[in-house]
Amino acid sequence: MIVSVEKAAGIIKKGELVAIPTETVYGLAADAFNVDAVKNTFKQKGRPADNPLIVHISSTDQLELLTVFVSEAAKTIAESFWPGPLTIVINKRVNVPDVITGGLASVAVRMPEHPETLALINKTGPLTAPSANMSGSPSATRAVHIENDFGVDFPILEGQAPSLGIESTVLDIREEPFTILRPGAVTAAMIESQTGFKVQSSEKKLNSDKHSPGMRYTHYKPAAKVSVIDEIPSELKSNITYIFHSAETSESGESVYNYKGDFNKLAHNLYDHFRQADYLGHSQIFIEKLPDDENSSILFALKDRVSRASNS
Ligand code: AMP
Ligand code: MG
What we know:
Helix content is 32%, strand content 18%. The protein is of the alpha/beta class and 312 residues long. The protein has 2 domains: 2-211, DHBP synthase (Alpha-Beta Complex); 225-310, no CATH class. The protein binds adenosine monophosphate (AMP) and magnesium ion. Residues 51-52, 54, 89, 101, 104, 106-108, 130-131, 167, 170, 181-182, 212-215 line the site of adenosine monophosphate (AMP).
């Protein structure tokens, strides 16, 4: 059920949850300083308590509500990338509820680029918002995904659906070099060139439990098996979902998608294809191997999600 900013603010202030659109994916928003509301977010999603939530803010001033000392690094990054798909991990203030951070001494924060969601946060203050999907299923990128997971009466804030379709980059800025904990549309190279800070994004750290608790869970996965294929099969089956990107192949069926090199569009639709495959009862999704292109930031994030989805 689509609700106005006014209505959504009322729901949040009552301690209840509202799905919010952002430029990345939909979030499941709660008042960050209402412990019961935050707890309810974990309950509704079936999210493990040790997978911390990102706090969404609408102005850089609100950082002071979440951390004692707003570092120069945080200010520089905020100036260069906010509002936008970059989350920073900083030391948390003691008043930030432990339930948000799964007991960690740090808190993850970002300012989303979405007018209605920013207007809502202006009225309510900081909101926790994990992706608006049941834990373990692909992130919600369409209003209908939220209806499928939480029912048609679940309140969804008005405004444009997510344009990117892939979750934010998560960057730990507590010590230099900064560490990318989750790849997204903002890459290490972009952060380095725009801020001058050194950024590491080594796979070793990415897969380390110590650094981003959420990365050990099987996110981003549909029920259907996802496999990466090197070559496009000569015969396509009707009970399999195919996602291609090379220009030579053509779309030839309901569940055959060809992005002809448009990786932004592929990212925008990826989770919808995952969900659609499950809805159709397909047990297999084949994705054509994505190319290596250091210069395409979305491709980098896309490859990460595809590789996580295809890891058995
Ligand atoms: P989601 O909101 O479902 O897209 O997931 C949020 C991601 O941010 C998860 O991978 C979390 O582990 C990560 N995250 C949130 N808070 C922290 C934190 N304080 N330190 C490290 N990672 C965090
Ligand atoms: Mg999620």
